[in-house]
Amino acid sequence: MKQNTRQNKAIILCLAAFLIALLAGCSNTPGLTRKDVDRRHYHSLYTNWLMFQDDVDSILMIDRPTRLSPMYSR
User: How far is residue 38's CA from residue 25's CA, in Å, rounded to a whole number?
Assistant: First the structure.
């Protein structure tokens, strides 16, 4: 019974720490509005997605021109 109570307390503590870390993610942006922070987050995610697509294209060798066309695929 005591072990179950300790596990519940540990789980609640971990969830609370996770929520605090999640909510405090953008608190270190003095002088920026929420719109500026959202714009920066969107730009970061978009850039990361483009880099991921470029990596997949290079693995599948889609980033090189074929013999049919001198143009790149993107």
Answer: 12
